[in-house]
Amino acid sequence: MTVHHNTPECLLIKPEQEQYSAPELPPDTPRIQLRLAGDKRKHNEGRVEVFYDGEWGTVCDDDFSIHSAQVVCRELGYLEAVSWFPSSKYGKGEGRIWFDNVQCTGKEKTLALCTSNGIGVSDCKHTEDVGVVCSDKRIPGFKFINTMANNVQSLNIQVEDVRIRAILSSYRKRIPVTEGYVEVKDGGKWKQICDVEWTKHNSRVICGMFGFPTERKYNARVYKKPSYWDYSVNCTGNEAHVSSCKLGHAVAAKANSTCGGGTPVVVSCVPGRAFSPTPMTGFRKAFRQEQTLVRLRGGAIVGEGRVEVLKNGEWGTICDDNWSLLSATVVCRELGFGSAKEALSGGRLGQGMGPVHMNEIECSGFEKSITECFFNKESLGCSHEEDAAVRCNVPAMGFQERLRLSGGRNPNEGRVEVLVERNGSQAWGTVCSDGWGTIEAMVVCRQLDLGFASNAFQETWYWPGEVSADPVVMSGVRCSGTEMSLSQCLHHGPHLTCPKGGGRNAAGVSCSETAPDLVLNPQIVEQTTYMEDRPMFMLQCAYEENCLSTTSSETPASSHRRLLRFSSQIHNNGQSDFRPKAERHSWVWHDCHSHYHSMEVFTHYDLLSLNGTKVAEGHKASFCLEDTECEEGIEKRYECANFGEQGITVGCWDTYRHDIDCQWIDITDIKPGDYIFQVVINPNYEVPESDYSNNFMKCRCRYDGHRIWMYSCHNGEAMVWVNHLRQYD
What we know:
Elements: E1 2-3, E2 33-37, E3 45-52, E4 55-59, H1 66-75, E5 81-85, E6 97-99, E7 131-134, E8 161-165, H2 169-172, E9 179-186, E10 189-192, H3 200-209, E11 214-216, E12 231-234, E13 246-250, E14 266-270, H4 282-285, E15 294-297, E16 304-311, E17 314-318, H5 325-334, E18 340-344, E19 356-362, E20 374-376, E21 389-392, E22 403-407, E23 413-422, E24 425-431, H6 438-447, E25 452-457, E26 472-474, E27 508-512, E28 518-520, H7 522-528, E29 530-535, H8 540-544, E30 560-565, E31 568-572, E32 588-590, E33 595-597, E34 603-608, E35 614-620, E36 629-630, E37 652-656, E38 664-666, E39 673-681, E40 696-703, E41 708-715
Parallel strand pairs: 1-8, 4-6, 17-19, 24-26
Antiparallel strand pairs: 2-3, 3-4, 3-7, 5-7, 8-9, 9-10, 9-14, 11-14, 12-13, 15-16, 16-17, 16-21, 18-21, 19-20, 22-23, 23-24, 23-27, 25-27, 28-31, 29-30, 30-38, 31-37, 32-33, 34-35, 34-39, 36-37, 39-40, 40-41
């Protein structure tokens, strides 16, 4: 069922929809009830189970089709079927196989009206149990019709919608809404639930659906008595969604709209730290995870990403064998979100690097951390192609209503417009494009739930918005990249500064569902490092490209420079190809090396003192971005020869060998000692990526004047935005 977000707009009284009526069935139609069961990755999918003649059973996959799945989903109250799966994808069921050789047109009112061998007639085994995936959307006005008067407690909850409706004035004005009546929409009408059989497990499930990790007690004396739904609710507490809970006993409503001595259900939820109402602003209010053993990486929005766990000081991934909604929900609650919306497998949100720490995880659903769940410590046979990921329920903060894209060719691009208060009323205006870049565009796309930024624009004359929204209402925007909304970024206050003005010079973005993710292999750096004394007369091309330190200009041709050389292997672990920002026509030809540069700066190489001071540096323009090698089954797309297309394909890597020009740091002027060696890929954020935190690598480095050692190389484990943060005067 669709979660009804509780922004203040949702609390307005709206006309009731037309009453949903049960389909009229022929008298001889077998009376059945359906449910979705098994090993789910989402609440609206699962093994199709049928209740008939006092017993739950399954449906065989023989002759099953998307039309049959459509009938199942509609009968359960979902708008339509998305797909179906044979061969017990959601696990083997038990009991009878009630239907075999099912053939539907898609228009039947119940599965029992589809052509089949006859109810209970089957030669199938449970290895052939069929499963379906239904849409998130529910049928408007859907009303649950119970045909199982004596077995109602074995049914899952099927209603059109659920919401938390704030009643107390102190909660009605608060975003997100954390306390209020639990209401279900059934037959087009909102109704409260009687609390006679209500438990804290039920509250836990409701809070999780709305993005809150836990529930708390509330003051029951301040709530009034309304009208009730016909049933109570029975959750175990580890369900990710109330639709997985069972119906409780039928409630006999009294004439005075009370329920057997009970009162209406109220929940009071505890938001995660990132969503708690606080007076903090700017960077301090931006989303920052608490120090934890678990983190999410590679997700487009807050609350989604590849699951990574910290073990023995090293971050690694989780193998998706047995990965379930139950285990995913433990991760989500641990990180301060609600329950899981979806448990993703197959590296769907990008592949990680390093070890696979956990496999075959089994959780009860009440663990405080995923590390408390049972798991197989052996991950033999698991690769990063099987990295597990999650999408969590997060609170409705109303951010999307205060930002829009205007004038674009499609909903994923346009001029950025912000809703602000001006002269006592609310008005839309533009954002000054001075300093506008990829990081700011990422925050906009995240706020609008449009994925990742694919481009940041400082001119938008080709996207004319409404003239009334031309004036600049926000300037000096500088984001760290972790913010949930643009208003949380640093920006000028009421005193705006924007010499270029708004309108045609306003900031713009284009968004994409996917993005690349470049990661440097630290082991290759460690294994290939060495030192070379190279004559100056052999370094003229490198000198012209500024690959030597400034003192090289005073070095005679007969002398030499001391170079710290190494290879770098850069993998694209994201979901789309890494392509240079510049179009082919603007690539720069370099006569000296006879190649095109597609990016002005692709990597920074720095040698730092132990206190972080830079003592030597190098940089590498993109000599050429190409697929040197790829994983098995992936074809190379990019190569530099003959002015070819440049880029790095998903699942491929570009290797810059230690013996090519500029693949070094000039350490001629460095004294012996201990240092930190650092590599930063895509340092100016020219190309959007799904995760910038893994774009840098650090090693310990020891130099004795004659030899050099590189050790303890590792990818970055915290967000580093130093290059992007700029001070105001």
